[in-house]
Design a protein that fits this description.
This protein has about 240 residues and is of the alpha/beta class. The chain has one domain: Metal-dependent hydrolases (TIM Barrel). About 40% of the residues lie in helices and about 15% in strands. The protein has a seven-stranded parallel β-sheet with strand order 1-2-3-4-5-6-7. The longest helix is centred in the N-terminal third of the chain and has 19 residues. The radius of gyration is 17 Å and the shape is globular. The structure holds fe (ii) ion (FE2).
């Protein structure tokens, strides 16, 4: 079973699909690319809305989409969120932001270099949280963080790391992503698709590169771990796959 663990497919919700038609086009393309399930990881920015507002708004967007896709041959949609790290997350109960039916939370890091206190907050959070953290598109921070900070963020042994398919179209990010995959430091894959124009689902392109450069067993492992995530298995169990 293949799951896209990162996409912005809900209509008129964030910077992803701008209409139901665009959502459907993305979902059809994901189906074409072999996905059985997609996790709708809409952006959650705590500085813009509360947890309750997000969950309500997301439910409405999902309902709109759900009635429009009835009978279409598209992947199953599972609700989730892409949560931008914020300093008080450690105090919050955010079950509704997790991948539905699990305790897995897709966490996005800021696109600026973290200060030492911010890094310490992140470390406290990762070490104490009841949630099972998946770091989103970990390869992207290699361009933004210095080596020491990047290594710190990459070094949690009780978290998972996700790679973006569209990064394989960038020479530098492709190199980083392939290296991390080979080192066993990336565990699942997502398209991070936002639309059908500038950021479409690019799984097939990424898969062809991974197959050619590393071998198909790495993709198989992504999908096996993905099944384990949806089954809410423990991080240690998933890391052993
Ligand atoms: Fe995203």
């Amino acid at each position: 079973m293949k799951t896209d663990f990162h996409c912005h497919v809900l209509p008129e919700f964030d910077d992803g699909a701008k209409s139901i038609d665009e959502s459907i086009a993305i979902l059809k393309e994901q189906k074409q690319q072999g996905f059985d399930t997609v996790v709708a990881t809409s952006h959650f920015y705590r500085n813009k809305e509360t947890y309750e507002q997000f969950v309500l708004r997301r439910q409405k967007a999902y309902h709109k989409l759900e009635s429009a896709v009835s009978g279409l041959d598209i992947p199953d949609i599972v609700l989730g969120a892409e949560v931008l790290f914020y300093s008080s997350i450690i105090d919050d109960e955010v079950d509704g932001l997790c991948i539905s039916g699990t305790k897995f939370l897709l966490l996005e890091m800021p696109f600026y270099s973290l200060s030492k206190p911010e890094l310490n907050l992140l470390i406290d959070f990762i070490e104490s949280t009841e949630y099972k953290i998946i770091f989103a598109h970990i390869e992207r921070y290699s361009k933004l963080y210095d080596k020491e900070l990047y290594e710190s963020v990459l070094s949690f042994d009780n978290a998972l790391y996700q790679v973006n398919c569209d990064s394989f179209g960038d020479r530098v990010l492709r190199k980083v992503a392939l290296k991390l995959i080979k080192q066993g430091r990336v565990h699942i894959i997502g398209t991070d698709a936002h639309n059908m124009t500038s950021r479409p689902p690019l799984y097939n392109d990424a898969a062809a590169i991974i197959n050619k450069k590393l071998g198909s067993e790495y993709l198989d492992a992504f999908h096996m771990r993905g099944e384990a995530v949806l089954a809410d298995k423990s991080i240690s169990k998933i890391l052993s796959i």
